[in-house]
Each structure stands twice: as C-alpha cells, then as structure tokens.
Amino acid sequence: MARVIAGIAYEELKGTGKITMGPQGIVGTRIFKVVYSRAVAFALTVLTSMNKGTQTPMYYWPLDNGMNLYPKTVELEGLGKCLSETDYPGYTFARVTVTYEELPSAAQNKNKKIPHTMSVDYSAEFITIAPGSYKFDDGAYLPQNIGILMPTIERTITLKNCKVIPETALRGCRGRVNEGTFFGADPETVLFLGAATDGEFVEDPITGVPAKEQELAMNGIYTSVVSAPKDIVLKFKERMVSWNYAYDPAEEAWREIFPPPYEAVNFDQLFK
To answer: Which residues of 107-131 are buried (b: 16+ CB within 10 A; e: fewer)?
Structure first.
C-alpha cells in the first residue's frame, strides 16, 4: 500500500528493514519504490529532514533497545526497462535504498580518542638561588648567588587532523599549570607554554569571522574552522617542583608562593 511524504507516493519493497550490527555500531537499510521522476526529490527530503528537526518514521528509525537510527546515505536505481531514447536515462520507477546509522552520543564523543603523536625531551635548566641558601662545610653561608640544575621535561603533543582550532581552550590553558595529574606528573608541575598550527580558515565573507566561531560564541566557547584538517602542536614544560614554589633560604626548603603566579586548570579541555 502506497504512502505519501512531501507529496511523493512511495512504498517499501521486499528486503527492507535489514539491520547489521558490529563493532562500528548498528546500520539499518530500508528499500523504497517511488516514481523515477520524483526519486531525487524523495531522497533529498529524507536526507535534509533531520536539519529541520522533523521526527517521523521516515526520518528516523526507532529500535526496540531505545536507540534511534538516522538517514546517512541514499542510493537510487532505475526499475524496469529504460524508457529514455536520449543521452539521459529514464525509468517508470526507482528503487531508493536508504542507509540508517546511529548518531554519535555524548558518551561516545567523550570517550573518542583524538589521534596524536608525542615527543619528549628530558633535560634540565639552571635555577638561580639567592645568597645565604647554601653553606660551606664549616657552616658559613655562600655569599653569592648559586645556580642549581632543575630536572625538566619538555613535552610536545601534536593533535592530528583537527577540523577546528579550540581557541577558548588554548587561551584558557596557556601560561597555566595542570590542576590534576598530567602524564604522571604531580599537580602544578606542568606549565602549558602554548600551541601552534597553520592552515586556511573558513570565514564569513561579510564579517570575516570564522563561521563556527559565530555559532558557538553564545555558549562562551570559541573555535575557528579550517578548510582542511590540520595538526595542532601543544607545548608543555614539566619540572620537579611546583611552578608555584620558590626556594626559601631561611627555611632551606622550597615553599609555596602566595598569591600563586600560575593558575591551575584542567588540561583535558585541550584534547576534546
């Protein structure tokens, strides 16, 4: 029995309703029959409906486990004898095969890993200690500054094939230290030095502002869209002692500074 959607009559054919499940998720297939001259309009109606927020059985496929499948691709094929005598094909009817897939859930996006590479440089830097911090064997303090070696780790992480540049996250973390453990380093011992990338940005021709940046600005999150996926290089510097500590000669120990010169933030936002 034929049904009508957007003024186009259709019916489902034998073999429709196939569902395939695997490691990549759930994929469904529905097969429709429509008048060939309306096949493209039918396909576009199905594919663009989700952008309009339409929720009907044609536009999404509810499963018995509470999940929904949504139109992903559409394939058109002429049915019967080709009627056209010109260079363009023509048929009475068309077989329209619609592939439905899951939309990535928030949990799936949260657990998704961003491909990256990393280089690590284990080295050290000189720290100048004020007079009166160190003694000779007779108990007398050294009268001059002394330089000591502070072990450091310079870590460079390259995020691969990024479609957006997380402007807000980069600004919010630059010049700040890690709030929690970061690659095994204790809190406040890793300083985010900054990031680097290059590429052509997709901008609004009138405002000159990246289109995606305008879209997300209302939520206080700014990004820039690149025309092709680019790499983002993140640079960190770790040392043995908190960046908010300084050596106190009177106590002969490293002590916390108030107010702390480096704010502690969650570096996880750099990898989302």
So the answer is: eeeeeeeeeeeeeeeeeeeeeebee
